[in-house]
## 1
Amino acid sequence: MAPKTVAELVDEARRGSGDARDELVRRHYREIALVAVAITNDPTEAEDLSQEAFIRAFRNLDLLVDPDRFAPWLRRIVVGVSIDWLRSFRPNLYRGWDGSDEVAASSGPSPLDRLLHAEMAERVAAALNALPPRYRVPVRLYHLDGLSHAKIAAALDVPVGTVRSLVARARRKLAPLLAAYAPDRSRTIDEVFEERAVSERAPTRFLHVANGTCTTRIIEAAGIPGARSIWADPLYEGPVPGGVSDEELLETRRRFHAGAEAALDPVNDMRRWRSVVAAHEAYDELVLWYEHDLFDQLNLVHLLSWLRGRLPAGTAVSLVCINAFRALHSQAVPIDPDWGPRVVVDTPDPRDPTLFPPGVPLTPPNNPAARQPGQQDLRQGNGPGGPDELNFQFVLRTGYNFTIFFNNSVGAMKEGIGSNWLNGTPADGKRILDLLRSLPNTDLNFATLSSGNTDENGWRDSVYWAEALRPKIMTTGHAPIGAALQYYSGFLDQLKLMEQPRNAWPGFPRSLWPIVRNHTDPTDILKPEVYSTGDPAWSNPQKAPRIAQFCS
């Protein structure tokens, strides 16, 4: 059957068809998102603005005189939405739309800018950003996003000849800017922005689909690039009929949920989540974040079933298995006679006043009345359940099953005591250590070296942890300001001390030690650690049976 025309889809969408709206989003999302990115120069905001443009369009479909003109009408909406956003949140950029040909004045690059601009690609990006928007937008859409002159003209509602002229003039304006940013390079502006038959590949765009806002907020806080959406419904409650259309299923679920609280209609959210996932052509990969409990597994099966037939052949779908469990938060205990006292002195770093200038701290004080704007309380102990410690393991379900483990604290493992489990016993500590030994083999552990037990027992608990988890790479953090290097060397000394067996301790042979990578000061934090999930180094035949146990 021939695909429906845009006019037919618009007509059906006017009559309330969710499938028609989803198809319109699928066909036009990528182009709309590129326009928003070009105007705002902010990919994250552009995703939100693109969705806002579709919402406004669907609310006002009756105002569209010619349904065949849906695409240019939608492009004008996203241009308006993006400019409104600039006016409100980026007034300096908004003023660049007044037609002025003046290049934005620079206040001088920061040290971080100088570091980033060491590479030619970043220098080109900086030069692009200095252009007035009337030039930056078309040249970016053409050279970096791969749109044709005709599509750019339709998006900006100007003649094709105007677009060609703007792109050519932009290249001429870039020549002196690029020379200023990269005087040591001999490549000319024509070589950087040459006319090409095949567009340059844009950076990989991810859509992360998760089981709820808790996971999406973690993804956002971790700085993982990409858009985020949710797919969640307690499918183990109420009717879930088979052999029905998606709209019929949604109506069944709506009636079930409305029975408990008439004002609650989560199906509206489900439709919105579907519209985001349906726009798969705007992304290079979907990453699905689900755990192995019944709620998550039923939603994952439902989502994969829904995706079947909607994704073209070859679309990559990476399943991420999340293992989470309650652990022990740090707690001081008496000195362990097996290892003796370990004296730890936090040595101030003379660079502290420069590296950590006075300002508003991110973590607010305990007194709510003393909190200041911009502060965020990310401490686990301030949740409704009180102080606690949660650990997470992420297993990528493709290739070599690259696995990351995160823990921001470690309790007194030998005694089984934590600040969240003060009445613990050695059996509790053993139970957690046995769980660590049974998990899918960990490739990268982002771990802590700071503990409430450090002053009494040094880094004994961190060694207990590393011996049980046995990660290939251990990236250490969470150390006192100015003492990170001292904590790093102290941990290595503790590894040497505990290498051989002693009493009930089995020993931790040097051949099993992880590669320890330390964050000693902010300059390390600014250097991203990049790992290829396709590296054969992550191959481990022991992973498969453990993944089958925890992630099936």
## 2
Amino acid sequence: MKKTQLVKLVKEGMSNHLSMIDEAGTIAANEAKLSKMASYIDEGNKIGKVFDNKLFDKFLSSQTLKTVKKELSKGISQIQKQYDKLQTAQLKLTTSSKK
């Protein structure tokens, strides 16, 4: 085997390993993002349930309460869309890395 062929094989091997390390980092980062998003969605839903308590009717007008609930719902929905999109991308990434 020629020296140039050996050098080429070593470079390809190193490049492949670096790509795998980079991909593993991306997968781990996405998992952390998904976990945090799920936590935010859960917290938002819990907060929304708190506003269903009749106690707030004494302190906030029904219009204000309605607006707050609507904005909270919009926020949760936006995070949910991002979560779904990232989860789909993560599934594709993990599936392709197993091949």
## 3
Amino acid sequence: MTERLKKCIATGGVGGLFTLLKDWPEAELRAVVEDAEAAFEEESDRIDALWKDHAFRVENFLSKDRSAMLDRVKDDSIFNALAIFSEICSVAYYYLPRGKEDYDADTVVDRL
């Protein structure tokens, strides 16, 4: 995880992100978007690997309750990661120069 991304996460949310990113140059904003996208992929892979490690243990695999709990934890974890990284991207997109080809809603959604 890059130092840029760590700074963004440390802000604790959208309000802090607006304050932090408002004076960043365009190149840094574009870079933090790329950082966030890469970090989300890495985090998703990490969560999936942890889920597989636990979900396929006999005591969990054969238990409906344990399997369901592990599925919920996996889904919640991925959702939380998506929320964090999409907040960062959204604020960075807000400060980037507007260009339909780069920042229209379909493009943003497709990239995440």
## 4
Amino acid sequence: MKRRILFLFLIFSSILYGQNNIYRSGGITQTIGAPTFTPGVSGNVVAIDTVTGEWYVNPNRLSGLSWISAGYRLTPISGSIAPVYTPAAHQSHFVINGANTIYYWTGSAWVNVNAGGGGNTFYAGEGIDITNDTITNSAPDQTVSITNGGGITPSGTYPNFTLTATDQSITNEIQRLDTFSLSGQTLSASLLNDAVAASTVTLPIIDVVAGTNVTVSKANGIATVSSTGGGGSGTVTGTGVAGRAAFWRSTSAISSDANFAWDSTNVRLNIRSALSSSAALSVRGGSDLSSSFSFVAGNNSGTEFFRVRNDGVINARGNYIQLGTDQNVGIGPTTNGGGFASNGGDVIFAGSNSGANNTCAAFNIVGGRKLASSGTLWINGGLFDPTTGSDTYSIIDVKSSVVINQTGTATGITRGINITPTLTAAPNYRAIDWNNNTGYGLYGTGTANNYLAGNTVIGTTTPSARLHSRGSNASSGTNAFLVQNSTPDDIYKIENNGKITYWATNTAAGTTAPQTIDKPSGTINFAAADVTKVVTNALCTTSSIVFATVRTNDATAYIKNVVPGSGSFTINLGAAATAETSVGFFIIN
């Protein structure tokens, strides 16, 4: 009878609430799955899903299906271990024990929520912070630096490093002696703070034996050798003179010479008598001839690199001669035409490249007062006479190794040759003067511009214009002025008799077709009855001035006008030509 009443009650509840998954109704409704029924006026507004243990509430019991999840209930249990029971349908699936460990029922087992399923516990430490369930590295990206030193070599990469001692010996180390003693032939020594026993060395016995004119006395381990003198074989003989250097005259005799003197008081050596009372070394030659030398110096290979001849000429072999700590070389005047000579080699003067604003001269010539025909710098002599090959020769050569590199805001003038004298009175001064009759006076192969601020004259010394050219004669056939292109074609020339010639193309007789003439002048032919003719010319523009003239004595033809265009011009006659007529033109732009 009770089972029938419960069954009818469940059917009534399903009809009343509109849900067929109600397990049991009371103060809290238990459902199988999430609640979906409408509580009604007096129905329960709290429900629990017996499958998951999740709680739900319905604040608006009459508003329809509006159940809201209220989460899971956390049930306290005693003890410090996991629950051992299987939760009933109405019991919570979340519990917390006496050790504050939370467990969750998965449907088949309890799982430790605190340990994330693994049972591990995390603690904060140096550089590691834990906030709730977030672990943070509070000191990331720290550099690990291991430096080699003291015989230790690091290797490996983070986090595994290996430190290797590369020098474990004491062979080259500075050690402090603790003991040092000699007993008979035994020498003993030990190091301070060294656990190794003292090292000993047995010294060999060296006996000193007396011989001819030699005596030996021994005491306390010390042998004294003395010479007893005497003559005969092996005896050193000879006598000396005060103030002279001794030398071996033979294998057993010492001698001296007046030409080899030694001043022990002032530490001076004189050869062939002193030339100077204050020189540490004084050498006098054996003659005044150029074929002999008073002083010669050489290297270990036997090459002589410095010689002083007896006639005063110095021969030096090397890259340069440097005199004085300031690197200046002074050459005084002589009476024989020059103070410095090079026989077959180059004379090179090298300047310093240091200093930002210094005035540095590799070769600075300061002239004196000149009373006769002379020069501050003479380049005299020399011979260049090859018979084959392509060798070149320069009397003065500014090499490409001279590097000019002005950067930034540097705008100073740089010059290859700078001639800026002070001309107090010089009516016939010439900065550059040449007198060669073959080759070129001036020759430039570069593409740089040439600038002349004054008048430029050719063939005369009395200019009257910015560009003044005087011919060499007054005859025809020779040019006073000539302009050519790269072909070379004569573009414009003026002969010495005044004849002017322009670059032109003259059309041959019998050709009356329109012509293309890309030159400043030329001729074309009009056929009989022609009135107009177009000439194609790349030099012509709409602004050109074109002159034309009839060159044939035609009965009717005359020039009416010439109309310039872009790349061509048109010649119009005042009347048609009676016969073939030649017309010449000239273009000015």
